[in-house]
């Protein structure tokens, strides 16, 4: 019969092997994602390594590494950043278009005021000549 102590030691050994295997898979996934210039985060590492997100979060060594790399890798924009950049670009285009339209309308308004002044002058001349 196997003693409880040896069973416990055996389980510890298996757990340690599994932990080391997970760390190795994560490191390989990080290398792969870095080479492909992909974003480094818990989701991408989990998908690339086959290690569950729960394991990534639970293991302090792995978690610290991913958090560090995630902060160092701001070159890949998030969807939210892309959306904001597009919105800002669109706003800039709209502002430029509206400024052009305002300028055209101001010029037209000035022309119409000048025509109105000319019409008033003609009307005043007509009134003065009729009296």
Report what the structure shows.
The structure is a single chain. The protein is mainly alpha-helical. It has two domains: 1-76, no CATH class; 77-131. It has five helices and no strands.
Count of domains: 2
Alpha-beta classification? mainly alpha
Q: Name the helicity range.
A: over 70%
Please give the alpha-carbon distance between the first and last residues.
133 Å
Question: What's a concise summary of this model?
Answer:
With 131 residues, this protein is an all-alpha fold. It has helices at 4-35, 42-49, 53-58, 60-72, 79-130. The chain contains 5 helices and no strands.
Summarize the SSE layout with pairings.
Layout: H1 4-35, H2 42-49, H3 53-58, H4 60-72, H5 79-130
Helix pairs in contact: 1-2
Provide key terms for this protein.
single chain, 131 residues, mainly alpha, 2 domains, 5 helices, 85% helix, rod-shaped
